Amino acid sequence: MSHHVPTTGFVLSLIGGIFVLLGGLALAYVETILSAFGFGFILGGLAIVGLLVGVLIIVFAILLYVMPQMKVAWGALIIVLSIVSWPFALGGFFVGFLLALIGGILAIVYKPPVVAPMMGQPMMGQPMMGQPMGAPPPAACPACGGQVNPQTRTCMSCGRMV
Residue 153: is it exposed, middle or buried by C-beta count within 10 angstroms (0-12/13-18/19+)? Predict the structure, then answer.
């Protein structure tokens, strides 16, 4: 990719979302068993909300990878949903909560690496350091008196830059 992505935050949030989704599935299974015995009203719609929280964490983790310029928003939403996963999806068996929480934090604090600009040879027509703009190179080297190459501004005898 041409842009820098908070990959660690993405991976941890994605795995955390999968665990939260599994926790929601486990809660839905327990709710189904309890409803067979007439106790389904105890958990109500918690399982559906737990499944939704897990899916949303996964979606926001994918958006973190696809749109990293909004990493703070995605990270904050992942953190909030990981906290919300406790009552609705058993916190993804605690592992999902922890991974999504750390992934969201890493997404928020991620800083892309700084790439130093390349320093190369000066382009044709650019003055060397210490030379005024448009000044022609001297005809002879001040150190040895040798001939100066006007394109590289170096002495052809001693190699010194002039």
Answer: middle
